[in-house]
Amino acid sequence: MKIQVVGLGLMGGSLCKAVRRYTDHTVLGMDLDGKTLQKALEQGAIHEIGTMETLPEADLAIVCLYPEAAVRFLLDNGEKFRKGGLVCDICGVKSAVVKAVSGPLNRLGVRFVGCHPMAGREFSGFDYAQADLFDGASFILTPDEQTDPSAVAELETFARSIGFGQTVTASPEEHDRIIAATSQLAHVVSNAYMKSPTLQKEAGFSAGSYLDLTRVAKLNEEMWTSLFLLNREALLYEVDTIMEHLSQYRDALNRQDAPYLRELLKEGRLLKEADSRLRKEKS
């Protein structure tokens, strides 16, 4: 299979490297930065540089751009994708992207599926791309009523072939509701937590819990601003919910209400233990 990856940042670069490591597929890389393309060639991450002229030859095109740029690229180049070929994006929000491009592409005979690899790092750019980034990770597919079921099946097989541990299918709307809680809220909380003036003097006073909570505060603000605003309603709901829970802890502390505080902490512990058991059962 010939694969063309559009955008060789952390995710696109890692996809190229994973394809090279785990499969016999031919992978082409396409990027606006010539130095990145040359680096990808030199490192063996791609077989050759992809262009708009090679796009119609791709059996699978993977668009690894920020949401707005991904939508523009997909719509502007719909006629260039191979008829009957597979096309997917990997944006972290799905409703806006799928709604904009699924109909137009599928009407052109292009089998489009919105996807989201649940993996990443606190760094961005090709320099941090890793062939094993997706090992054991979850690959989410978000078909709509216009999606060809065969496209979903083929992408599930492809995802597992490059290291993903599981594939999950959800509607674009369900994806965005859940991702607001499991990913986007975590980045908001981590980023806000770093703004405590006390943390500027943390040297020697921090350990694992500090590092765990602050890891994703080191984010790409351009990308995350786009993701947050495109999923605004779902994220606002999660922000309001956590603020409500934080106010409960604050009230317990303010009243020096040990039984209430103990109950709040117990509730959180039990929920975490249940989540850990479920993850263990699925592994």
Automatic annotation (TrEMBL):
UniProt xrefs under InterPro entries: 6-PGluconate_DH-like_C_sf, NAD(P)-bd_dom_sf, PDH_C, PDH_N, Preph/Arog_dehydrog, Prephen_DH
Entry-linked PROSITE patterns: PDH_ADH
MF terms (GO), sorted A to Z: NAD+ binding; prephenate dehydrogenase (NAD+) activity; prephenate dehydrogenase (NADP+) activity
GO BP term, pick one: tyrosine biosynthetic process
Superkingdom of origin organism: Bacteria
Keywords: Oxidoreductase
Pathway: Amino-acid biosynthesis
Record-annotated Prephenate/arogenate dehydrogenase domain positions: 1-283
Family membership noted in the UniProt record: Belongs to the prephenate/arogenate dehydrogenase family.
Record protein name field: Prephenate dehydrogenase
Organism: Candidatus Merdivicinus excrementipullorum
